[in-house]
Amino acid sequence: MLKKSETIGFFCIKASAYAGILLLLAALALIGLAGYRVISWQFLTGLWQHQDIAAGGIWPAILGSFYLGVGVTLCSFPLGIGAAIYLTEYGRQNFWRRSIEVAIRNLAGVPSVVYGLFGLGVFVYLMRLGTSLLAAVLTLSAMTLPWIITAAVEALQAVPPALRESSLALGATKWQTIKQVALPLVLPASLTGGIVGIARAMGETAPIIMVGATFYLTKLPTSPLDKFMALPYHSFILATQHSDPRAVEYASGTALVLIVLVFILSLGAIILRYYFRSKYKIQ
Amino acid sequence: MDTVIAVKNLNVWYNHSVHAVKNVSIDIPRHTVVALIGPSGCGKSTFLRSLNRLLDTMENTNIEGEVIFNGKNIYHGDVDVTALRKQIGMVFQNPTPFPKSIYDNIAYGPLVNNEVGGYWGLSGIIKKFKKRKSASEVEASKDKLDGIVRESLKEAALWGEVKDRLFKSAYGLSGGQQQRLCIARAIAVKPEVILLDEPTSDLDPMATKKIEELVLKLKDSYTVIIVTHNIQQASRISDYVAFFHLGELVEYDTKKNIFTNPRHQLTAAYVKGEFG
């Protein structure tokens, strides 16, 4: 028999767990209901028509967001894992290392618009990349880095010391030990943290407006230095700036596509992680 | 008596304050099994780790004294530490297979020591894709690496149990098999000395028995130094026994003398099981 107060407490805990799922489902249902009617083959694959929004599609924005996601992954994963390896394996436990770690943790909480300003100042003007896909990738990578570094540092610290010592005891160098023994365990674990960061980066609007996203392009980007369209910004403009009465519906349709894209990305990460785990039979 | 390792006045401090090993001197005869016994925290594991310079990897550790291995002090400045560790192998308390296949676990040592060549380059990558061989193919293979893997597993009495799953993850093996895999992995680089740090403390009696039989067999080709909590184990497999207490080497003698005629009161009390 549960006491009455326990029953109430248990109900509250259970309710908060379900609230999380409900919120997600509600958001999905709302966007889905508002936007499902505009989804068509033409909407997914056509070029954007500014005069008649029903005549074109959002293919340039899908492609732009896809390029961003791939670019950020390629940029921030190697850098983040490299930084994590340096911090945990080579950096000595001292004031500087702790300062760097605290800085990285805090960077994860910096508002995205600040990253946008940073990207505008450094990548667009200082490095003369202009407002471009490349500048946006670098800006969003800087934003994603702290997530990946934190996840990888935690994964590296979780590698059993005896495993490293076994490798050293066989005459392996430190680098061979990291590469051969630690990384196979660290990669799947840091994938999870990394994918959260990348999904967040793909959904960002504020920073990419400053460094290269644009609402209307007549052609697809052909070089990393071109401007590009992106789903979140496209949705934002449609919902708030466009005069067409159907604009809100199209904004919801665009948001739906973005959610699905991020979902596919997460699913890919889960499959990859499962593959790593089963390959090494990690419990 | 042919001495393989001679330790002279070895001292180890942790964090500049804890004096973990106190002025220990000991001669390890070649092709014998030497058991290091003593209660927890007596410095026996620390002492073991000083013999292959694994202690160096820990921060805030100070080591003084000499460890003469084949006539050369391993703490001398010009010693190649990775080459030294290849000659003095080690197996740990918990089995530590790498997140790799059984074959790759054994091949790891020879490959990182560049004994078979062509691993980090293109030919190594091609080899990685080609090497899914069956047990009989590895059995008959003339390839140097295949030979090392096969012979090491046979020497560790594991070949029969794993030959049909050489390319499956080593995590699929039982605890005892994993520990024998770690021994096979250690002997794959042909060391002269093998250090065992309580290798059976996590294993059941049957798996322990197999490891003990293996240790007795290894004595013919290697020198074995084993840390153990288990006094009976020391009496079953060792030739010499060193009793440590509070960082000091209290007594070091043949097994017979330690168990039947110890010189120190403390040793007598410990081997009788009066404290642990």
From TrEMBL, chain A:
Q: Can you supply a Gene Ontology BP term from the record?
A: phosphate ion transmembrane transport
Give compartment(s). Cell membrane
Q: Where are the transmembrane segments?
A: 21-39, 59-87, 107-127, 133-160, 181-202, 255-276
The protein's matches in InterPro entries, at most eight in alphabetical order, are given as:
MetI-like, MetI-like_sf, Phosphate_PstA
- Report domain ABC transmembrane type-1 positions: 62-269
**Source organism's superkingdom?**
Bacteria
Q: How does the protein associate with the membrane?
A: Multi-pass membrane protein
CDD domains assigned: TM_PBP2
Pfam families this protein is in?
Answer: BPD_transp_1
GO CC terms of this entry: plasma membrane
Gene3D superfamilies in UniProt: MetI-like
GO molecular function term, any single one: phosphate transmembrane transporter activity
UniProt keyword annotation of Cell membrane present: yes
Q: Provide the alphabetized UniProt keywords.
A: Cell membrane, Membrane, Transmembrane, Transmembrane helix, Transport
Similarity comment text for this entry: Belongs to the binding-protein-dependent transport system permease family. CysTW subfamily.
Fetch the NCBIfam families from UniProt: 3a0107s02c
Query: Protein name, please?
Result: Phosphate transport system permease protein PstA
What organism is this sequence from?
Candidatus Falkowbacteria bacterium RIFCSPLOWO2_02_FULL_45_15
Lineage runs: Bacteria, Candidatus Falkowiibacteriota
UniProtKB/TrEMBL annotation, chain B:
The record, for Gene3D superfamilies, names: P-loop containing nucleotide triphosphate hydrolases (3.40.50.300)
Q: Which UniProt keywords apply?
A: ATP-binding, Nucleotide-binding, Transport
**One Pfam entry name:** ABC_tran
Q: Which SUPFAM superfamilies match?
A: P-loop containing nucleoside triphosphate hydrolases
Q: Name one GO molecular function term.
A: ATP binding
| Any Gene Ontology biological process | phosphate ion transmembrane transport
**ABC transporter domain segment(s):** 5-271
**Listed InterPro entries:** AAA+_ATPase, ABC_transporter-like_ATP-bd, ABC_transporter-like_CS, P-loop_NTPase, PstB-like
- GO CC list: membrane
Its name, as the record gives it, is: Phosphate ABC transporter ATP-binding protein
UniProt organism field: Candidatus Falkowbacteria bacterium RIFCSPLOWO2_02_FULL_45_15
The organism's lineage is: Bacteria, Candidatus Falkowiibacteriota
